[in-house]
Amino acid sequence: xxxxxxxxxxxxxxxxxxxxxxxxxxxxxxxxxxxxxxxxxxxxxxxxxxxxxxxxxxxxxxxxxxxxxxxxxxxxxxxxxxxxxxxxxxxxxxxxxxxxxxxxxxxxxxxxxxxxxxxxxxxxxxxxxxxxxxxxxxxxxxxxxxxxxxxxxxxxxxxxxxxxxxxxx
Length: 169
Fold this sequence. Notes:
Helices cover 79% and strands 0% of the residues. The protein contains six helices and no strands. Helix 2 (45-55) packs antiparallel against helix 3 (58-76), helix 2 (45-55) runs parallel beside helix 4 (78-101) and helix 4 (78-101) runs antiparallel to helix 5. By secondary structure, the chain is an all-alpha fold.
């Protein structure tokens, strides 16, 4: 049965708000841990984007990507906003394509999305700095992308199970 438009609009709003809240929480959590390399994030806000793709549609998830990037731009500056958009949009494209055309686990999809997020951000940094020396930093975020991708995928897998259960009530 197709969900009514009001349901889709409400869920999009809730997922957008949750994306922004998780983005703030990630910043606070990572900022409180000493020794974490610059730019490393958990990626929990991408769980909401993936939920929008799975529960609504790829088309419905795109405004969430844009809102998240604009929020980062307004709160952390233009460069951070461009970097956020590049990474989030790359991860969004990968998630949407893999969900639509493969039968891979959500954990695998999240790992690949996290890696694509990092590649997009590093390439954006190379363009912004007009230097390819930024590529030397690539191994650190790639390793953390795999780890955080597994965590994000596990969180998403458990979350979607709960949401599916709630939808059957």
